[in-house]
Specification:
This protein is of the alpha+beta class. Helix content is 30%, strand content 20%. It has a six-stranded mixed beta sheet with strand order 17-16-15-18-19-22, sandwiched between helices. It has a five-stranded antiparallel beta sheet with strand order 8-7-6-3-9, with no helix packed on it. The two termini are 17 Å apart.
Length: 702
């Protein structure tokens, strides 16, 4: 399936018209609000209740769950297995009765998802005293025993949240506080001085006087879910507004696969590690390494800047000590423009370092193989996005701080443009860079003769170089392309500063060189964001608790503290990719034939679906039955899912091309995720490989 992407992109590129304006209305999934079939819980529900609702009688509720002997129960709407989350200190029994002699397992690991095989005598009409039994097991193939309804929480949607990058200690957000119940959280959120109330709680915690209302707290250090896997399932939620912005109160369970024991602030050990500062690396900092990949425009105008970059790197390597020389590795990616319109350019991108190299080797590469072309392209824009995309896939060393330095004088062709070869734009790439913990520094060489291109380049480069954890800050610097000394000074300053920051991190002193010792604020913020990720590897998130929290910073609600993800298996990701493949083919067919989108979709899907005629009667793509059922069950909004024939007919050619490229970009992202061996995790130690899961960011959904 994932091999389809390259051929589809070539076919589509040949048929594209030149599109110079970006389309922003389609193809971007947003969690504007958590609305779906499970919806809001009534106000009188207990604080420890799940999202599935309650039956009126003692018989198994007619709530969309079907259980068949010998297999896991299924949700009829999604055809996904039903799962539960055990509460702390729960027991599993051989039969559906409380008997000490029939205990299969005491103290079942809390909040580790388990599959449901049967439900008996279920009565959830009293939230404070649920009755009945669940037959459960850690695999989808075999039940292991029975658990009481009061000891479990149903988890129907594989929806969870992850902590956002917290930013630096001075300007970043506050750690997430986890409250004992909803009322305790609302007491803070509804206070006229919410920030002051929250600050009082943080001060009390820092002073060792733990408030009764606060169960636990996110560690000060950053725990990246794509590196240190944890599970924060959403059990309940409600929505309110703060300063005109929608925010959510979430009831979460917390679990860390392979670990047990409640992490509350009453535990001295957990409190101590949770309060370790974001920049405190300790002994681990002595082992820090740094990988730097240069991404350079090598079209006709760039040779002087390539030469000055080489000189700056050479000067940097001369300052290396015996110890730091081994800590650095370098890469070089050159980019030009599409060969479809300018074959004389020889290449679109060229990765000159399949394996990262020493500083001396990079200097030699810049001199011998990194030269600029003598010919020009057909327009001013180049393929910077393609170069940035190639650099992301460099052979980074495990545990190294990862930086890309982008050097160019022109904007990149937007997604949907005939000369855009990557199918991506700055938003797609920034999201992938965040997941890979790669940080980009951009140098915009401004040619006064191309002033009309400067705003576009500045916007693209600024987004690519956004400092993680600080949405208002970008690591970008602009220099006059006619003032070569400006660039020479910047290149020397930047390379010296990188060397100095590594020395500082290792416990040494900064370079005494006048240029190198001077702060470079744009890069310093980038370095700090990378260092926070590095230091966070030693932190552990809270586990084995149920608590209420806000998805925003309690002191500064404009800052998002939690982001929504969905757990997917490889099978689900592949199914989603196959469906989007058919959507792309339908978009192509409708574009060529000038027909209706759903007629085209019905045609390309005919062989893959049992009842393709259902597509023709669908009002929206979401209702077509083509996309996996689990997608339709998720509470998020998407312009692609709401696409209708009328909407498609009203779109301009460039809007349609943007829509198609948005889908292609997601297919490429799915392929990348599928190929990442270390990115997939087991919820339980006994899970087979096909049940490995990935915490997919909701923006990756169609």
């Amino acid at each position: 399936m994932f091999g389809y992407l390259a051929s589809a992109r070539r076919i589509f590129t040949l048929g594209m018209v030149l599109c110079l304006t970006a389309f922003a209305g389609y193809g971007h999934a947003q969690l504007a609000d958590l609305e779906g079939t499970q919806g809001h819980a009534p106000a009188d529900l207990s604080a420890l209740e799940g999202t599935a609702g309650h039956a009126d009688g003692a018989a198994p509720p007619d709530d969309g769950i079907v259980c068949q002997p010998g297999t896991a129960c299924l949700e009829t709407a999604t055809q996904l297995p039903l799962r539960i989350l055990p509460r702390p200190f729960a027991s599993m029994y051989r039969e559906a009765s409380v008997n000490e002699e029939s205990v299969v397992q005491a103290n079942v690991p809390a909040f580790k998802p388990m599959y449901v095989f049967d439900r008996q005598g279920l009565d959830l009409s009293l939230p404070s005293d649920p009755r009945g039994w669940y037959q459960v097991g850690r695999s989808k193939t075999e039940p292991e025993g029975w658990m009481q309804a009061k000891d479990v929480l149903e988890w129907r949607q594989a929806l969870l949240v992850s902590y956002t990058h917290p930013g630096n200690p001075l300007e970043g957000r506050s750690p997430v506080l986890m409250f004992s119940d909803r009322a305790a959280l609302e007491a803070v959120v509804d206070d006229m001085d919410m920030a002051g109330k929250a600050k009082g709680l943080y001060d009390a915690i820092n002073g060792g006087n733990i408030p009764d209302s606060v169960v636990s707290m996110e560690p000060q250090r950053f725990v990246d879910i794509t590196r240190s896997f944890y599970v924060l399932p959403i059990l309940q939620w409600s929505q309110t507004r703060i300063d005109g912005d929608d925010v959510r109160l979430l009831q979460l369970a917390a679990a860390v696969p392979g670990s047990r024991g409640a992490d509350t602030l009453s535990s001295p050990d957990y409190l101590e590690q949770a309060q370790v500062g974001r920049s405190a690396g300790g002994a681990a900092m002595r082992d820090v390494k740094t990988d730097v990949v240069f991404v350079i425009d090598t079209t006709r105008s760039m040779q002087p800047f390539i030469d000055m970059t080489r000189e700056a790197v050479a000067g940097m390597t001369r300052k290396f000590s015996a110890e730091t020389a081994d800590r650095f590795r370098f890469g070089l990616v050159a980019y030009r423009d599409s060969l479809e319109v300018a074959p004389q350019l020889e290449y679109v991108t060229r990765n000159l370092t399949p394996e990262l190299v020493s500083g001396e080797a990079l200097v030699e590469l810049l001199e011998k193989e990194g030269g600029a072309t003598a010919v020009g392209s057909v327009d001013y824009a180049e393929e910077a996005f393609a170069g940035v995309d190639v650099a992301l896939r460099s052979q980074w060393r495990d545990g190294a701080l990862r930086f890309v330095i982008l050097i160019g004088d022109a904007s990149s062709h937007p997604k949907g443009h005939a000369q855009n070869t990557s199918g991506k734009d700055e938003t797609d790439l920034r999201r992938e860079y965040d997941d890979a913990q790669v940080h980009l520094f951009a140098i915009h060489l401004q040619d006064p003769r191309a002033a009309e291109d400067h705003p576009q380049t500045q916007a693209q480069f600024s987004h690519l170089s956004r400092v993680r954890g600080n949405a208002e800050s970008s690591a970008i610097m602009a220099v006059n392309a006619f003032e070569e000394q400006q660039y020479r000074d910047l290149a020397e300053h930047l390379t010296s500063r990188i060397n100095a920051k590594l020395n500082e991190a290792m416990g040494g002193s900064a370079s005494t060189d006048a240029v190198g010792a001077a702060p470079l604020e744009e890069f310093d913020k980038l370095w700090e964001a990378a260092l926070i990720e590095y230091v966070g590897k030693e932190a552990t998130p809270p586990k084995d608790i149920v608590a209420w929290t806000l998805d925003r910073d309690l002191i500064n609600p404009a800052d998002r503290s939690l982001e929504v993800r969905v757990l997917v298996t490889r099978e689900q990701l592949s199914s989603l990719a196959q469906s989007l493949d058919q959507v792309v083919q339908a978009l192509m067919r409708a574009q060529v034939t000038q027909g209706q989108f759903f007629e085209a979709l019905q045609s390309v899907s005919g062989q893959a679906m049992k009842r393709p005629d259902e597509i023709g009667g669908a009002a929206t793509l979401a209702e077509s039955g083509l996309l996996p059922a689990f997608i339709q069950s998720l509470p998020y909004k998407s312009d692609i899912l709401s696409l209708t024939d009328d909407m498609f007919a009203s779109m301009t050619a460039e809007q349609r091309s943007q829509l198609e490229w948005s889908v292609l970009a997601k297919l490429d992202q799915y392929r990348t995720i599928n190929e990442q061996v270390d990115a997939w995790f087991r919820l339980n130690d006994t899970d087979p490989d096909q049940d490995l899961v990935y915490p997919l960011h909701i923006d990756y959904l169609p």
